[in-house]
Amino acid sequence: MEIREIQAFIEGKDTDSNALRTQLAHLVKAHRVQAEREKKLKDELQGEKEENRRLIHLSSIHPDTMLPLYREYLKDMNILLEGLDPRVNSFALVHFMIKDHTDQQYSSYNVRKPLMFKTVMKLQDLLLQGETLYQGERLEDLILYVPALEKEEFLRDRLLTRFLPIISARHQTGSGELQFDCHMGMVRYPDHGTSLNELNSNLEFALQEAVREKQSLIQYNTDIGEIQRKNLIIQRDLRKEKEESFAGLELRYQPFVNSGNRVVGCESLVRWNHPEFGFISPEKFIRISEQTGDIKMLGRWILYQALQDLKRWLKAGLEDIYVSVNLSPVQFTHKGLSEEIIRMMKAIGLEGRYLKLEITEGAIMADPEESTMIIKNLQNYGIRIAIDDFGTGYSSLNYLMNLPINTLKLDKSFVDDVLNNSRNQEVVRSIINLGDSLGMELLAEGVESKDQKEYLFAQGVHYIQGYYYSAPVTSGEFETIIGDPDYFQDK
């Protein structure tokens, strides 16, 4: 209906008033329907906007901790750094690495998840104005931004006396008690970097140093930077060695000697003469290989080389000898480990009795049931098992009777001062008595003097290892030693 028709009706100029009234009613209804449609569409659009905003918000936070995601941290920091002047501005970043205290026993994601949320909520209550807690790249990583850092001591005190107790509190779960450990790395802007890449790199270096030194909090410094630079070079060159079948590494062998000064076996020890750094401690590059995942290949190479050397000694007629090879905790948890070792020995043509494997307490205690199964599989082939560094771990006495162990190795830390330290003497006697009662062999490592040797043999130790008898030697040199039954008779 046109406007002019409505106008005519209003002015009484149209005679068909009923028709006009009907059309007018339809028009009013049509306008009402249109208005309702427009309102509904507007409401739907508004709802979609709110839903989009909600989805955008949800996509920027971690579902388990409700913290801003790591990418939000990167975005916020890049925006922040664009507007800062390093001559007048400052701030701090703290990287928290939170992990299960047992490292294995209750590390199920579903167990940790609600406890992490509970912990994060309590940490949020500690934040001061302007501070932001971000989720790291993993659930156990958190990053704290602290603006306008003026009193560094105040921040360190807060982290150690307020944050740390909350993180390390004990939690009761359906599986038992759980407690988190925490390591923190810290950097300052602009002292430790003016770009985000530099700050993040140094933040990671500080955290790694805290983990390595078993410290709760370490702030970045140039010494840490140099250590990490060397570690990166070692990591790179170790990868090159792997590609070249570890041609730059070699094995040394240190004898095990009985009370009659006869050699009964040896421990294989890997050595690496690095082209830049010279001889690198095995503990150092083994740890790096564990972190990078290269330990599987390195461990396999060490075992293979040791077994090949052993095979050559046996062919030379030296039957009463065995070789002991260390397994790292990372190796020990590798699925199919026992089957792989047995296959290798069969392929080389060696019986199990010629091999002993050294495993640390920590590796065994991480999962005693699984460890027992692995050990029994190995022992079924005749391979023997030794606990390395016995007495330095935890829960030793509680679990020892249930583990099928053949040999206990007394740690060097007990041997060093055993002649003068009554506490060490008592510990050594206790371990020897325990081993005897369970029918285990006792081997003392790190023996450096005749007096130490005589004392330990008198206490009931079965075998001695250490520089008193011999430093680690090459395969050929060890063959010379075991080829002469009287080599150590004057000892």
UniProtKB/TrEMBL annotation:
Q: Does the keyword Coiled coil apply?
A: yes
MF annotations from Gene Ontology:
cyclic-guanylate-specific phosphodiesterase activity
Superkingdom = Bacteria
Q: Which SMART domains match?
A: EAL
Start and end residues of each EAL domain: 231-486
Q: Pfam families annotated for this entry?
A: EAL (PF00563)
Keywords for this protein: Coiled coil
| Coiled-coil annotated residue ranges, if any | 28-58
Q: PANTHER family, alphabetically?
A: CYCLIC DI-GMP PHOSPHODIESTERASE PDEF, SIGNALING PROTEIN YKOW
Question: What is this protein called in UniProt?
Answer: Diguanylate cyclase/phosphodiesterase (GGDEF & EAL domains) with PAS/PAC sensor(S)
Q: Which organism is it from?
A: Salinispira pacifica
The opening ranks of the lineage are: Bacteria, Pseudomonadati, Spirochaetota, Spirochaetia, Spirochaetales
